[in-house]
Structure formats: structure tokens, C-alpha cells
Amino acid sequence: MWVAVLAVGATALTAYARAAGTPFWGTSYALPVAAAASAGAMTWVHLRLDEGWVRWRQAVAALVLGALAWPVLLAGASLASGLAPDSAVAWALAVAGGVGHLPLIAAFSLLPLLAVRYLGRGLARWPLVLVTALGLAAVAGFVLFFGDFAPLEADVLVDWGPGDRIGMTLNLAFLSTVLLGPAVSLAAAVRATGEATRRLAAVALASLTGAALVMLCGAVATDGSATLVITAMYAALALVVVGSSRALTLPEPVEPTPASGGPSRLDPLTARESEVLGLLAEGLSNAGIAERLVISERTVDAHLRSVFAKLALPEGPLENRRVHAVLAWRGDLGERADAG
Fold first, then answer.
1. pLDDT of 218-240, one tens digit each?
2. 237, 67 in Cβ contact below 8 A?
3. CA end-to-end span of the chain
4. Does 71 sit behind a cis peptide bond, omega within 30 degrees of 0 on the bond before it?
């Protein structure tokens, strides 16, 4: 509901800016409409994610807010420029509108990197540091050296000849990081094993498709084609969020039980409960299982309690049900091997 309210508010503010402010590409109706469509798709994903996916849900929620905030900033810049030209507020809003899309661009790498952290064999800090540092540098370059906000009223903060070229270089360097996330997730997929390989490959495909869409539209963009680039960016953002989230929640393949093996003690378990039990048998703690499956420790604990109950494992101060569960898992594997 609040997403719909924000979307309507952004559209209404854009309409007011077109009437009372300084019209420019940022007051096009394409901006709030594309933002609302993208935010709606990301909200749909957010509502369907397990509550245990705390960080991923937080990242998606932040992107929803960022997607809807950019049209508001640009409409505010238009109004301030028309109603209070040469004011500090007009300059600040012009700058904020100019850099408001950078956090959205950063998501093209940060989301795949977060997926690698969940599913890969660890993640070095340098990709995160690089994306963050270049993003901050691009913002600083824009704030200091860019003054050509025409038709908005804003003057350059530091009038230095090479500053414009430096700012443009920093901006291009940051934009190039959209390929970093897909590259890292693809490399992690090559190093990973089992189901993580398939999921990371799907994350890499989704993020690479989104990045390619943005770069393609940027390459063919001409003067007056800002609407195309804006629409492509929002479409690509939704594609990365929906595709990556879907990749992380791909259904697990179910291995058929050999026909000659007969019924198994583990048959009552669901596919997810069997997966949790298998990771427990690998020696992982609840925290390790949660990290591997991208769920909360609370969810892992709930699955294990269900496993203990379905297997009717002994309970008491002298019993360790985790050990009994692992023994049941290994015993089932041994029976399957003998049947094979």
C-alpha cells in the first residue's frame, strides 16, 4: 500500500513541477511511471521472500525506496529552480537529482555480490570496496565539478578547467562496475559445487542481462532520448532484482529413491527438511546452514525441530537429537547404497 502511495505522490509532484517549475527531462511522466512499475515488481518479490532472508529483503526494500525517490528529487529540483532560483536549496536539489540514480546503478553489482556472499565460497572485500569507492568518487566529482544543470538554476561549486573531465571520468569508471557483479558471480559459480553452482549461474545471467540492457540503451541514446535510457534502467533494475531473487529460490532437485530400496525412514521429511538434515550431517552449525540456504537461523531451528519430531528421535538430558538425526541420515544413505 505504501508503495502505491509513494508512486502516486511522485507522479503528482511531477505534474506540479511541470506546471509551476522549470520543465526538463526530469519532469517527464515517463520517470514516475517507470519508477512505479519497477518498484511494483520489486515489491512483489519482497512480499514473497521468506522472512529469514533479512539482508536480501532489506536490500530490495531499499531499492524500492530509491526507485521512487529519484523522481521526487528531480521534481523538487525543477520546482526549486523555478520558484527560488539561485538559492542553496535549488543547487542542492539539482545535485541530488543528478546523482539520485547512482545507488540504483550500484545495485547491478551489489546484489550479485550479496548472492555470492550467501552461496559462494566466501567473498573478498575488494569488489564491495571498489564499487563503494567509485560510487562515492562519482558523487564527489558531480558535486564539485558539474555546474551545467541547464535549464535548472545551479552553478559549479569548483570552477576548475580539468574538473569537468575528471568528474566525467569518475562517473564512467563507476558505470563500468555494472559488469563487476556478473563477473564475480559467474566466477563463483565455476568454483562452487552442487546446487550453489546452478543458483549462482542464474544470478550471473540475470545481472548480466540487466547490465547489458542499460549499456545498450546508453550506447544508442541521443539528445532527447533520456526517456529511453530511464525506462531501460528501471526495467533492468527490476529484471536484476526479480531474476536474482528467483535464482536464489530455485526449487531443489529431488533425487529419486531406488525402487528396490523400499520405504525409507526419511520419507516423511519434506525436500527442505532433507536438505537441512543433509547439511547438518556435513557438520554445519545452524548458522552455517542458514548461510548456505540463505534463510534465518530461526527457520533452520524450526526445520530441525520438525525433523526431530517426524523421526521420533529420543529427547532428554542424556540424549543428543542432532547426533541421532545425523545417524539416521547416514543410515539411510547406507541403505540406499546397499540397494543400489
1. 666 665 577 788 888 999 999 99
2. yes
3. 55
4. no
Model confidence at 16: pLDDT above 90: yes
Which candidate, 19, 9, 22, 20, places its Cα nearest to that of 71? Answer: 9
- Residue 155, pLDDT > 60, answer yes
What DSSP assignment string belongs to 83-149? HSTTSHHHHHHHHHHHHTTHHHHHHHHHHHHHHHHHHSS---SHHHHHHHHHHHHHHHHHHHH----
Cell 556472499 belongs to 117
Return the minimum-mean-pLDDT range out of 1-5, 176-180, 222-226, 231-235: 222-226
Q: Could you tell me how far CA 337 lies from the centroid of its own chain?
A: 41
Structural contact between residues 161 and 171, judged by C-beta atoms closer than 8 angstroms: no
CA distance 169 to 79: 30
For 169, residues 6+ apart whose C-beta sits below 8 A from its C-beta are 141
CA distance 185 to 207: 9
Cell digits for 270?
Answer: 519434506
Tens of pLDDT, residue by residue over 37-60, are 999 999 999 888 776 677 888 899
> Could you tell me the three cell numbers for 3?
508503495
Residues 6+ apart with CB under 8 A from 332: 264, 265, 266
DSSP assignment string, 59-81? HHHHHHHHHHHHHHHHHHHHHHH
Q: 20-34, 48-62, 178-192: lowest mean pLDDT where?
A: 48-62
On whether the CB atoms of residues 107 and 170 are closer than 8 A, the answer is: no
Distance of alpha carbon 181 from alpha carbon 203, whole angstroms: 9
- Give the burial class of 159: count Cβ atoms within 10 A of its Cβ; 0-12 exposed, 13-18 middle, 19 or more buried: exposed
Question: Biggest alpha carbon distance in the chain?
Answer: 83
Which whole number is the average pLDDT over 244-272? Answer: 66
What are the pLDDT digits (tens) for 59-109? 999 999 999 999 999 999 999 888 888 788 888 888 888 889 899 999 988
